[in-house]
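Hey, resending since the last one bounced:
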Amino acid sequence: MQKQYREMVNTRRLYKFEGEFFNWSPYRYMTTQLTKQTLVNIGKIIWNDEGNGFLIPEIRFGKGLYHGTAKGLKYYYSWCDRETIELAPTQRDIMTLIHEMVHAVGYSNHDTKFVGKYIELLTKYAGVPKKELIQGMIEYNVAVPRKYKRLYTQCKTTTRTSRRKKR
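The structure tokens again:
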């Protein structure tokens, strides 16, 4: 039960990180809505390197999974079942595609293994600097893999210092 709770909390933190970090000015291109053909082409490039010989999942535009209602609007999330990646109407962008590709490669939970692969793909295919990703994830308390421990401790020290100065 404790593992499930940790995973649920990390999922919320990761979604919050994605929603805020990639809307910050230098990375807005990550949330720019793209055409289906553009996303399929990007997906093929990623899958050729990361797919481990499996067939590429079908990338389609659809309604997504219903998440809830807020302020009178219904919210839907994109999803992946390893054979299909369905991108919801407001999530037809590079960030969401890479997120779902990590699921398609075999990382079903939003744990440290998922986050490690996600960092790797965002750095390799979207050009987001690894250190900035890790710093951002630490700010949002996302579980970062131990293999980034050196960067993690440097970032955490910097983060704590900056928080103290703000108070």
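Residues 161 and 167 are 10 Å apart (CA to CA).

Sorry for the duplicate.
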